Fold this sequence. Notes:
By secondary structure, the protein is of the alpha+beta class. It is 32% helix and 33% strand. Helix 1 (8-31) packs antiparallel against helix 2 (37-84).
Amino acid sequence: MDSNPAELPKIILVLLLGCCFCVAENNDKGCQNSGSTSSRDICCFITIAQTVGALGEKVTNMADKITLLETRLQNTDREVLELRSPRVAFSAALRDSGSGNIGPFTTSTPLKYKRIFSNYGDCYNPSTGIFTATVNGVYFFRFSMLNNVDPIPNSGVSLKKNDQRLTSVWDTSGTDSHDIGSNAAVIPLKVGDNVYVELQANMLVFDDSMNYNSFSGFLLFPE
């Protein structure tokens, strides 16, 4: 019959106490020749106390070792679970070569980040600029944007989940140049949900080999 490891010290203690009584009975026979009834009682009591004390110390040590082993087992289970968790992460920059403005377009358009730094799980598609969740869970996303002085800065991008706008970065001031901004979000996703950065209609962004515009994301934990 299976038993709970936490109950093992109690079971051992009961067995050891049984042994103690056997030892006490044998010692009682040895004490019968040692004098009065009171002396025999004291002799047997001391023997039992010493035996129980020694056995109790052993049981305590055994219980401590079992607790330590249980803790190690729990840590091992946690590590195995972490290793089995899906690995989903990506990071990409807007241009893989050249420099210049992207946009404006007459309609809002997903930006295609073509220079891939990493793409664990292959959830990000550089051909479309869209990240598609393959695991239910909570994700982190971050994006950055840079505009240029020529023509007059008129930039705006938004992080979108499916058709829902989440966060945005805008710069439409003509009094300064080369402004950069970023934003981020932590969001739950279901399998098949799409996340992308959308350039707003009639706006533009600038990039070159310095990779000012980037899009990154990763799975925080599955659900």
